[in-house]
Amino acid sequence: MDQKIQKVVIDCDPGIDDSLALMLALSMEEIQVEAITIVCGNSPADMGFSNTKKILKHMGRLDIPIYVGAERPLKRDYVNALDTHGADGLGESFLPEVPGYENSMTAQEFLKKRFVPGQEGGPCSVIALGPMTNLARLLSDCPEAILSMDRIVSMGGSFKSHGNCSPVAEYNYWADPDAAALVYETAALYGKKIEMTGLDVTRQIVLTPDLLAYLKRLDPELGSFVSAITKFYFDFHWEWEHLIGCVINDPLAVVHFADPGLCRGFEAYTAVETEGISRGQTVVDSMGFYRKAPNALILTETDPERFFRLFFSRLLKCREEGLDLIPGLAAGSRMTGTVFLHGKEAQLR
Questions:
Q1: What are the tens digits of pLDDT across the range 98-109?
Q2: Fewer CB atoms near the end CB (10 Å): N or C, the chain?
Q3: pLDDT, mean of residues 191-201
């Protein structure tokens, strides 16, 4: 992995998998997190702020500034995802609140200060793990700010995978399709490319009961913390998808940012639908019908075993070579057999 340190602003909506992504980003020596901006999405903005403080406290990183941003989408009514992430947005772990830590500057004000051309601070990228409302508000006022963003990695969208909140749409883009459409349009206008880490690759990143048990064995304290914030997620995935485990979308965007070789894909012009039953769908012109220059890198392949080796080694601060073959991730195979999840028996096929 390239050891060059990359500065980044993480825009997120914690959220269970956002929280795991924050933990991972703060554990990676390749990433320097300059700030965290909060957007409404999985959880309301104030709840996301509270959850971010809890994660930073757990990681011993309350030195990182947090800026609260959009409390509603650009045009749509706000629809949260607490049915997926629990009443507290953090898997109903109900961790103790972290008092104080207020910041008078809003996310939009910070993003303007950081990315409007002519500002100091050097190269910096954005990892967008939630709806793109904060970025859209910035770019609607100052579209050339996109030129100051070294890279833009977005966990969102879908190419050929089915959606997770409609037949065709991924939640982040569905929740604020107008924002996502504006960001992609601005990227096309200024010759930038959004690195779309969508459901085609994130659906392959499944935290299984075996993996969680392995993490607990290697580090009981860390494993118990991850277990506390993901149990609700496990139950949700079992109830709605009969999946033994939970899809942790956002950490893959972080690992892709640090190690672009983990995922593969292709460049294409991409637009986001804002209306009707296709709201939030990413329309990927993979065949070049529009004859437009690519404004996105569409990730379609990844390596789950390699991801989890990186995920474990960074969180545990150990060498990858020190890890045994991670349970349930034998290369080129799928798990088979009978397992038990929260007292329920399920046959894996």
A1: 998 878 899 999
A2: C
A3: 98
Report which DSSP code applies to 145: G
Count CB atoms within 10 A of the CB of residue 200. Answer: 22
Q: Alpha-carbon distance 280 to 283, whole Å?
A: 9
| Domain spanning 6-206+247-304, CATH architecture | Alpha-Beta Complex (3.90)
Q: Which residue has the tokens 């933990």?
A: 23
What is the C-alpha separation between 92 and 79, in angstroms, rounded?
Answer: 19
- Entry field: residues in the chain: 349
Give me the helices (H) in the chain, please: 16-27, 45-59, 82-85, 107-115, 133-141, 171-175, 177-190, 199-202, 209-218, 220-241, 249-258, 304-316
Residue 167 φ/ψ, nearest 5 degrees: -60, -25
Q: Among 17, 62, 12, 10, which residue's Cα sits nearest to residue 32? A: 10
What is the rounded average pLDDT of the residues 314-320? 86
Q: Is 69 in contact with 33 (CB distance < 8 Å)? A: no
Q: What is the separation of C-alpha 174 from the centre of its chain, rounded to a whole number of angstroms?
A: 15
The domain spans of the chain are 6-206+247-304
- What residues contact 18, with CB distance under 8 A and at least 6 apart? 12, 42, 48, 51, 129, 130, 250
Give DSSP secondary structure letters for 156-168: ---SSS--SSSSS
**Alpha carbons 205 and 341: distance in angstroms, whole number:** 18
CA torsion through residues 300, 304, 306, 307, sign: positive
Please, what is the average pLDDT of the chain?
90
Q: What is the DSSP annotation of 164-203? A: SSSSS--HHHHHSHHHHHHHHHHHHHHT--EEEE-HHHHT
Helix (H, G, I), strand (E, B) or coil at 225: helix
**Contact present, 276 and 168 (Cβ < 8 Å):** no
- For residue 325, pLDDT over 60 is answered with no
Q: What is the pTM of this model?
A: 0.92
Largest Cα–Cα distance in the chain? 59
* Residue 25 confidence (pLDDT) above 70: yes
